[in-house]
Amino acid sequence: MLLPFFLLFMSSALCHADQFVLFDVTFTFTHEDALNSKPSQSHYYVKSDRLNLERPKDWTAPVDYRNGTVHVRLEVLDKPEGSQPTTWSVCYIPYKGQNHGYGCIGTGVYKDKGVIEKDIDMTSFWQNNDIVWNEGIKEMHLVLKDDHNLHAHKRPDPDKFFPTKVRMTLIQVSKGAKYDPKLMPTLP
Hints:
Distance between the termini: 42 Å
Strand content: 35-45%
Number of domains: 1
Order of helices and strands: HEHEEEEEEE
CATH topology: Jelly Rolls
Largest sheet: 4 strands, antiparallel
Helix content: 10-25%
Number of strands: 8
Number of helices: 2
Strand order of the largest sheet: 1-8-3-6
CATH architecture: Sandwich
């Protein structure tokens, strides 16, 4: 009798989602913000103090987030009229990198206000191997672009992109687990 109960307990424990919010920011981004952001234009910087202070130093152990997924939630609160295709590159900036030294995911292209949610495999995004994951993530760079990967401030028609207001949330999910929205009571 004890063995079936133990197996049931272990099965439910293995299905539990180890996840944490890396960041949850709401901000307005203007053309002036994009032109004046330093060191790179069109970047909105989420520095270490605005990331989850309890994020793991080592993303590989004891919980493996490096080989898990990231759940991206982008809520576009305000955007210029005209349905201009727009996207954000979301770049992980590590304490220690190799080769190019960072890696980026994308939110996907959107045209209007609303919510976009997607799960991305942490081993599939651009330059994910350029991050030394057991050294941790120090900041995130959010880069506003058009649907051809051109930074929005370089476009001849910046009024189609600026100003914009978004709420972006990244939830890191461990290897083998699935994102569980019930564990995120602060998200609609």
